[in-house]
Amino acid sequence: MADVAFENVSKEFPGGTFAVDDLTLGIPDGEFLILVGPSGCGKTTALRLIAGLEKPTAGTIRIGTETVNGISPRDRDIAMVFQNYALYPHMTVYRNLAFGLRERRTPKRETDRRVREISSVLSLDELLKRRPAQLSGGQRQRVAMGRALVREPKVFLLDEPLSNLDAKLRVQMRAELKRLHKRVGITTVYVTHDQVEAMTLADRIVVMSAGKAQQIGTPQEVFSRPVNLFVAGFIGSPAMNLLQGRAGPAPDGIGKTQVTAGELCFERAGVPSGDVVVGIRPESMVPGGEDLPGPSLDLEIELVEPLGESALVHGTVAGTAARSGAEEEQAILIDETSRAQVTAIFPASLQSRTGDRVRVRVDPERIYLFDAATGEAIWP
Predict the structure, then answer these.
(1) What percent of the chain has pLDDT over 70?
(2) What is the mean pLDDT of the chain?
């Protein structure tokens, strides 16, 4: 095992496009780090730079104490699992697992020991005589991971390994991956566009956009204290609701600022006057606001998605929606009208219906503020 470091690494493609732009990042030995972001943000390129499948235009990449810029992929002692399983269809599971070791001329007894050990860890013992065509998607993915792990690499790289699986199997494989990492402890770098995977699996996550690391931190840190609008709009499912707002001196609050966004109005200390973006997470919108203290909004319900004990409630509130930059289909998501599209999470017991108007309260301490010009978060 080993740590991994990017030191001012850039990767420029012909035409002047930077897939990775001045990335500096340290990954400690044994950490499970996830690179997350929308398509084209540079996360897969960063992974390929570690693997040696791409060469950096500038900067230094280290694995352990060794600078690996000029070292070939096969000599970096890394193992990579791709989105497609890339198993040899004519070989049994055992031979697929053993293939890399045999290519390295590992002694037969040692090869058998490692294969048996990894097959036990991944619950593949009963499948060793089968061929890939006789396996389910989840079983194939476990074989692909086993083939990488059996080599006992310094670094384990995974490029969207669960994206081909159905929803139920993805949840199961996420749990298996987490248990596997705790057991083997190999430094792991994982790429995904699915921020739910990032939040549930990672020790730390790196949110990327346009080749740059927007924020690095634990999942809870990134969720609770997004550094800018992009991170706020990307991390969270459903996404944070964003409204255009205005900050100015509070009429009766010494040292405080009054923030308004549509009919929402509240006071906050330490906010400079000017245009702001107000962020409200769906779970922070509490129905029955007329009976509770604090700022509230009138929500007109347009669509209800039942989820068992809760429901996603889509509707509109007075005000104008703001963009985070994380929307891949902005023209569809943003409706430039006098009412802004929002999403709330209500208890299913409320039995919300299309056409209902509901007063929702928002705890002012759970409202996020961002500078409208720079997109940077405004914290007290």
Answers:
(1) 95
(2) 89
Of the candidates 79, 13, 16, the residue with the CA atom closest to the CA atom of residue 52: 79
Topology of domain 4-228, CATH: Rossmann fold (3.40.50)
DSSP-based three-state secondary structure for 180: helix
DSSP 132: G
Evaluate if residue 334 carries a pLDDT over 90. Answer: no
Residue 243 near residue 77, CB atoms below 8 Å? no
Q: Are 368 and 226 in contact (CB under 8 A)?
A: yes
pLDDT tens, position by position, 172-218? 878 888 888 888 888 999 999 888 899 999 999 999 999 999 999 99
Strands (E), the chain: 4-13, 17-27, 32-36, 58-63, 66-67, 78-81, 155-159, 187-192, 204-209, 212-217, 241-249, 256-261, 264-269, 274-280, 285-287, 296-306, 310-318, 339-347, 357-362, 368-371
Hey, where are the domains in the chain? Answer: 4-228, 234-371
Rounded to 10 deg, the angle between the 167-184 and 108-121 helix axes is 130
Nearest to 210 by CA among 74, 43, 82: 43
Give me the mean pLDDT over the 105-130 stretch.
Answer: 89
* Alpha-carbon 147 to chain mean position: 26
The DSSP symbol for 150 reads: T
Is 0.90 surpassed by the pTM of this model?
no
Identity of the residue numbered 137: G
The C-alpha atoms of residue 141 and residue 87 are separated, in whole angstroms, by 9
DSSP 88: -
Distances in Å between the Cα of 201 and the Cα atoms of 178, 179, 211 are 6, 10, 22
Say how far apart CA 250 and CA 123 lie, in whole Å: 63
pLDDT grade, residue 332 (50/70/90)?
very low
- Specify whether the CB–CB gap between 264 and 295 falls below 8 A: yes
pLDDT at residue number 234: 93
Average pLDDT over residues 97-104: 87
Q: How far is CA 258 from CA 39, 65, 261, 280, 360, in A?
A: 38, 53, 10, 17, 20
What is the structure's pLDDT at 27? 96
